[in-house]
Specification:
The complex is a heterotetramer, with two copies of chain A (168 residues) and two copies of chain B (505 residues). Chain A is mainly β and 168 residues long. Chain A has one helix and 16 strands. In chain A, the strands form three sheets. In chain A, strands 1-2-3-4-5-6-7-8 form an eight-stranded antiparallel beta barrel. The chains are: A mainly beta (168), B alpha+beta (505).
Chain lengths: 168, 505, 505, 168
């Protein structure tokens, strides 16, 4: 039997979400009547909570759930409570550590690589400018760090998910 | 000039748009398509369709000779270029003429004159059309001449490529010291992009709006205007939302007719034939300046159609067949208000990064006052080969407020799965007070708007999102576990499926 | 009478239609749904949604008490009944009033008066509204009295149930000898259907058209009409296609105003408030006769919206909030032409047999001049519990020809997989010369139209159909063989897959 | 290897359809260039024949393919040429013979059964009146014959495909 208790984080806020019997859900102790109806390929969900109707688009990337609901985006991390406790016990492991690898989000043409190996860069620095769909797109760094490898140069064509650059 | 079969040298929503108009006139249609577009609506809706090459547009939609060959093979007597691709290539219009095919657009000469930004400025000035103060543009100035001119015009100025478009080879200069460097880098960019390093200067009009005039001109010399479109909502020189009328002009009918008359004058000065658009900058004191003329149908033409009731593509076809315009200036009445949102496959939460993929759902909004123009269908792929515009949502209302409200509900209904879209951007924009008040200029999106700030002001439901994300995660885990346990009796508390799913399993 | 939250006591396209109008006025919405409708658009688009019972409508959408309970629980201060279900039940309007809930429609009294066909005839006659010659209808006549009356009126006559609707308890009598039997069987059917065997007589108006007048009336006594709708295209008393204006009236503005004035008079005679429709028979000499009044929104209301630019549901809401009508009679201008086709899940090639199933595709037409009203989406199920109407396609044109051409292309684009639809019926109808000439009466579909005859006149492509069917069969056989052979190397000449499929496999 | 030659019948007309190499198809000896592109669940097909574009809906019942194409319906029977020859050799077997069983095409309420056991009926006679979707639907006989069994009566609720009546 699975654990039915989750810690769900949206922005700065943590919610304790508990799945109860009879389609009831508790959020930080407040109990809601929930009807979850997946429509197309699990991504479109009609959610009824205490009669309130939410027509939602939900999709996932490596770590997060993204919820588009009434015209706003919520990014949520869902953790099994037990997992969370174990992790906490082991100490904050490695949120900051490890290399960041920049992969091409789509096929395209590299227009510029305005950084060099060894550069110490800020969060938000432009790493690669990629042309795709007739537009130039600036790929920015999600965090500060040091460039340790650059695999592409201006003029290269890249495939989707091709490794372009590594940051440590 | 009569014709019964039209080749549409384009793809996407505009190809479908033209096919629809042809059908209504009883004209047969010929589509062309690249590898990526075999399943597109323009192929399926046309009477005939021919493959013209691989997906990249320079191997397919930009191949003039291939397209002409298809026209001859299929017996198409006319070509509609849509917008983009070959629409403003004078040599393509000329090639059509040489081959005895009607080009549905103006003469090669008019395209050429308006395509050279410097030349166009000169012609307009001579015709008495107001242009932004700047260098004449009809001859090449060297760097020193440009610097002297800039001082005379007064800073800030824009350095612009005469062969330009889409913001390439363009620099804003506010400080005299930056001038030589800006000229040099603009020349370099222009040379790379257009093969021509010639640049000219324009005074920077601050706080300006981008407002354009739609004109129609027939081969008998009748020219009318269909009022204005407001196009100031832009990002990186790409229009995102357009409306007609402009909230800035609103019910100032005198000003509208004044701008319209200048639009007609501009068109006449190059013996323009067919549908065209005069783009203007309008400052806060209602001074307006010619910017450029687009010698083709615009993406945003539907807002004009909805307020005037005139089908612009039907008129284009009529004009190309040598007929007299179906309307005189006094027939043109603007009724109500229309807004268009361009729906692009791009992530507004991630710097508008393009998004590609296969659409496992493309459910467009319907109902009163809502029009959608699109070239795709559920199952289509959004590829990196073409621009990211998937569709246009256009709403009409008796007034601007109703058009906005209808747009909001239409965007809420629009469901796209498989790629990310800029729909949330439009939703946020449409609830901004400044937008609702009609109080914006061309810098609004870049300088005064952010997705984060826009969402802060909204009624938010983080608990609901937490419930949804948690249930989605739970179901995913359960599904995975269920697959492993398959065959055994299901004893887990597999209860988090909806009532309907239980009934229909 | 003010309210901020509206319960919609209906389902399908009309529930969605009302929700859209509420949104545009900033009103919150409450949907109700049966088991079968959990996934329907009205549930997803409403602010709130509550389950009210099993799929059969007498256990859900007809449960007045349940619906009132939901209104109270959710805090809805008003109820919109749509059409059908509870829309013309005086006791429901009364129940709402008793519970302090605004019923968005006329008074229970007006519903009651117009619901009794005999009573309505009497009131109209007294008010000076022309009715079809016949028995007064406000008192019960026995068989002998009816037979004598029939002789006085002159045959042919219609025997009709006073409680009637939908053609039940209705008989056409052309021969005096058939009269007693017809009266008897009509009484029997009326008793079974409505629990009341009272019948009355009307003279049969031959070659008549069904034309109706839309009225709007506010609580201050202002009543206006919005012109007419032509509804003669019917099958078994079910309307299939409607248009505004009527091609029979066309530009006879004097006749339009004459009918309109009678519509206003009819509404005033029962102190009518809200939107209503006066259905009339119009003979070839432009004599017209009151038939009945529908005390609710009609299915076909969008054609009036498209030609007048007035949103009827927004006006209904405004009226119910106690406001003055937004328009005076002189504001109402008819512009262009609109046509509506009702798209039903039924097989036009098999006696219009209803078709049920799950829609694996529901791709609606879009583009210029096309509006679609629907309550379903790809993935929805068409169940046997409710009427078979899936959607309405409405087109607008500057004139009737353009509206027809747009409808043809819209129907060609409309793709439904999973159930059969009557789209081919509409496609055939729209290419009939008599239809295009506007030359039809209420018997046209039943007596002068057949799918087979309509298709004979078309340009046909049997060789293409043969190729398609053969390839489909071949692929199916190959797929089956392929599954059997799976695992082995595929050495068959598995070549009949498209280029795109090969690329993407 | 499968046989690539078919006899396809539409109405009174028989077509010999041969599938050739390189996406070519011969119909009674006339050769066409064919691009067959199945869209959604095989039922929606974009067919290009010598450049002519047909956006088609195709569906199947027990014996036939139904093709909706440019607003007209074509009903086609496709037979493998070898099958067809074998059948012909065996003689016209039993197109007319055998019992016809009327099954409910949808769930509904039986309103009337205007025939009796033993009735000799004409093609087109009404066998059952079924109410569904708020409408009365007359289910008619596809051929002449004699009623041998009736399984339902007025007032009965029937499920989809429930046997209602047999004709011989």
């Amino acid at each position: 039997m699975m654990n039915q208790k989750y810690i769900t984080t949206i922005g700065e806020q943590q919610y304790t979400v508990e799945l109860l019997k009879d389609n009831k859900v508790s959020v930080d102790g407040v109990i809601y009547d929930v009807d979850y109806e997946a429509m197309t390929g699990q991504q479109l969900v009609s959610l009824l909570v205490d009669g309130k109707s939410f027509d939602c688009h939900i999709y996932q990337d490596d770590e997060n759930w993204h919820v588009l609901m009434r015209g706003a985006l919520y990014t949520a991390q869902v953790e099994d409570e037990r997992e969370k406790r174990l992790k906490a016990a082991a100490g904050q492991a490695s949120d900051e550590g490890g290399a960041f690898t920049l992969k091409a989000p789509m096929p395209g043409l590299v227009v510029a690589v305005p950084v060099n190996i060894g550069d110490e860069i800020e969060k938000g620095s432009v790493l690669v400018v990629l042309e795709s769909m007739k537009m130039q797109n600036e790929l920015k760094s999600p965090r500060a760090g040091k460039i340790t490898a650059i695999e592409v140069k201006a003029g290269d064509s890249v495939e989707q998910k091709q490794l372009m650059l590594t940051l440590e | 000039m009569t014709f019964n079969k039209v080749l549409i040298a384009n793809r996407g929503e505009i190809a479908v748009r033209v096919i629809r108009a042809c059908r209504e006139l009883g004209l047969k249609t010929v589509a062309v398509y690249s590898d990526a577009d075999r399943r597109a609506l323009h192929v399926r809706y046309a009477t005939e369709a021919y493959h013209i090459g691989p997906s990249p547009s320079n191997e397919s939609y930009l191949q003039m000779e291939k397209i002409i060959a298809v026209a001859k093979k299929s017996g198409a007597e006319a070509v509609h270029p849509g917008y983009g691709f070959l629409a403003e290539r004078a040599e393509f219009a000329q090639l059509c003429a040489d081959e005895g095919i009607t080009f549905i657009g103006p003469s090669p000469e008019a395209i050429r004159k308006m395509g050279d930004k410097g030349m166009a400025r000169k012609i307009m000035m001579d015709a008495g059309v107001p242009v932004v103060p700047g260098t004449p543009g009809d001859r090449k100035l060297n760097d020193d001449e440009l610097i002297n001119a800039a001082i005379k015009i007064g800073l800030p100025v824009l350095v612009k490529a005469t062969a330009g478009g889409g913001g390439k080879g363009m620099r804003t200069v506010r400080d005299q010291a930056e001038l030589p460097g800006a000229i040099e880098s603009a020349r370099r960019e222009a040379l790379a992009a257009f093969g021509d390093d010639n640049v000219y200067l324009e005074k920077l009009v601050e706080g300006a709006r981008h407002i354009e005039i739609q004109v129609l001109a027939d081969s008998e010399g009748n020219v009318i205007h269909l009022g204005e479109r407001e196009c100031s909502i832009q990002r990186r020189h790409q229009k995102l939302l357009e409306e007609s009328p402009s909230p800035f002009i609103n019910d100032d009918e005198e000003f509208r007719q004044k701008m319209g008359a200048i639009g007609v004058l501009a068109a006449k000065s190059v013996d323009y034939v067919n549908a065209g658009t005069i783009e203007c900058l309008v400052d806060k004191d209602k001074n307006f300046y010619f910017l450029e003329m687009n010698t083709r149908l615009q993406v945003e033409h539907p807002v004009t159609e909805l307020v005037t009731g005139i089908d612009l593509v039907v008129e284009q076809l009529r004009i190309a067949r040598g007929r007299t315009l179906g309307y005189t200036q006094s027939d043109v009445k603007m009724n109500g208000w229309a807004i268009e949102c361009r729906v692009n496959a791009e992530d507004p939460y991630n710097n508008f990064m393009p998004s590609t993929g296969t659409l496992n759902k493309h459910a467009v909004p319907t109902g009163p006052g809502v029009r959608v123009d699109t070239g795709i269908d559920t199952g289509a792929s959004i590829t990196p080969y073409y621009d990211p515009m998937m569709s246009k949502v256009i709403t009409w209302g008796e007034n601007r407020a109703q058009a906005i409200l209808r747009m909001r509900r239409a965007l809420d209904e629009y469901k796209v799965l498989g790629v990310l879209t800029n729909i949330p951007f439009h939703q946020n924009l449409l609830s901004q007070h400044r937008f609702m008040a009609g109080n914006f200029d061309t810098k609004f999106v870049e300088e005064r708007f952010s997705m984060e700030a826009a969402e802060e002001g909204k009624e938010l439901y983080p608990e609901m999102a937490a419930i949804l994300a948690t249930l989605a995660e739970h179901r995913q885990t359960e599904r995975a576990a269920h697959i492993i346990r398959r065959g055994k009796r299901d004893t887990s508390n597999w209860k988090w499926v909806g009532r309907y799913e239980r009934m229909h399993r």
